[in-house]
Amino acid sequence: MENNLRALELLKEIYNVDQLLSGKEYIKELVHRIAQILKVKYVMVGHALETNPDKNQDKIQTDYLLSDGKFIDNVVYDLHDTPCVNVICGTRVNCYANDVQNLFPYDQLLKDLNVDSYIGAPFLHSDGGLIGLLVIMDDKPMEDRELYTSVVEFFAARIGTEYRRQAVEDSLRRINENLEKLAQERTLELQRAFESLQQTQKQLLSQEKLATIGRITFGIAHELKNPLNIIINSAQLLEEEDLDPDSSKKAADMIYQHGQRANTIITNMLRQARQETALEPEWIDISEMLDHVLDVYVRSLTDMDLKGHLVVKKNIDPRVYAYVFDPPSIERVLINIIDNSLYALGEKYRNNKETFTPTIQVDLKAGPSLFKVTVRDNGTGIPQKHLSNVCDEFYTTKPAGEGTGLGLWIAKQNVEKNRGEIHIESEENKFTQVTIELPGEQRLQEAQL
Q1: How far apart are CA 140 and CA 116, in angstroms?
Q2: Domains of the chain
């Protein structure tokens, strides 16, 4: 009874470690208290190593080695012919109360430390596998063998709990590090993919912009050729020596007027290319713009067979003005929509030349505060399953190489940027109708001046 009480007192005294400590700091403090309270010279805590092909645990790597109250450098301890070999082979305490050197004459460490008594206890994994061992040694015999054995066995179990907790924490830390590394790698991959997508998008947008300009270049060249011919002819008239004053003035006026016309054509093309956006909305004559785009684009058709059979119907209210931030973008919207209509008409016409009359209807109607542009064709139409996606970025129903999937997406962005709406109705092989609504008004009073 007295020994049990003494054991409990020692356990309580040793166990009274600062509970805020954990991990290595906790075990270190515990080792120091064991040596101090039990009044032993050496305390060793180490973990088993597998250093041979058979994976036998034949060495101990010390993690804490206390000598005369001070921690010294850790060592790798060969278990062969040492008392520790019996500890790791069992599951309980091994005690040699005195004369341990004579029992293990080949253990150099016992000789170097002048050890006379030895108690060692293993600490284990939850599945019973060995983690390591706790050893106390002294240079004198241990008088109360049972007491010291009980204390060592108890604290070996407690140290084992701390080792297992550390192992779990290390495993979680490694998992977190791996997850963080994986997240960083995936983030970097996504960033690179996003940058690549952005670059591709810029290239496609640039191609779409150039394609838009290219589609009207033929018509613009035709338009420029007419005023330039008139300017050249008028200039030649002015060179005639016997030209009367009235004819001279008329020729000069023709040069001025058609020079201005050519300048307007070039200015509009440059505005289209620069994609300038005004900081404040401005009024533009949408009637003139729509009529001009339709006329130029139809005349720029290279499919002469389609061009010869195409029926163009238009009902454009005059002097309708749009109040927009970005006039060139609205012009691109009209170009893209008319281009899509003519493409659909061309596709259907090539397959039904004998029975099909390609028709495009363009209307502009003014309201009190909005105007509505409607472009309708009787071409191939859009399948119902595609209709809800045709304004999505990179979505196209055209064959590879014939569409970027940006035309209607850009059109939608530009219409919404200018505070408008775009609506698309279609039925496969029958028709497609695109309607655009934008802020604007009709200025009939100006038309009467």
Answers
A1: 5
A2: 2-175 (3.30.450.40), 278-447 (3.30.565.10)
Going by pLDDT thresholds of 50, 70 and 90, the confidence category of residue 6 is low
CA distances from 50 to 76, 128, 131, 133, 243 (A): 12, 17, 11, 15, 115
**What's the number of CA atoms in the CB half-sphere (13 Å) around residue 192?**
5
User: Token match 């838009």: residue?
Assistant: 212
Beta bridge partners of 67: 42, 70
Pairwise CA distance, residues 420 & 370, whole Å:
9
Q: Report the 10 Å Cβ neighbour count for 358.
A: 23
* pLDDT tens readout for residues 89-148: 655 788 899 999 999 999 888 998 999 999 999 888 888 788 889 999 999 998 888 888
How far from 49 is each of 56, 77, 79, 130, 259, CA to CA, in Å? Answer: 8, 10, 10, 10, 95
β strands within 25-144, DSSP E: 42-50, 57-67, 70-71, 76-78, 94-96, 117-124, 130-138
> Which residues have CB under 8 Å from 19's CB, separation 6+?
none
Q: Please report where in the chains the tokens 């012919």 appear, as a residue.
A: 81
- Give the pLDDT mean for 266-283: 63
User: Nearest-CA neighbor of 302 among 274, 343, 331?
Assistant: 343
CB 356 within 8 Å of CB 305: no
d(CA 235, CA 238): 5
Q: What sign has the CA pseudo-torsion 265, 267, 270, 275? A: negative
Write down the pTM of the prediction.
0.45
pLDDT in tens, 59-86: 889 999 999 999 999 988 888 888 887 7
Segment (H or E) for 217: helix 145-238
Q: What are the structure tokens assigned to 142, written together? A: 């241990």
pLDDT at 447: 40
Chain segment 354-365, per-residue pLDDT in tens: 889 999 999 999
Rounded CA gap, 411 and 338, in Å? 11
Kindly state the average pLDDT of the residues 36-49.
90
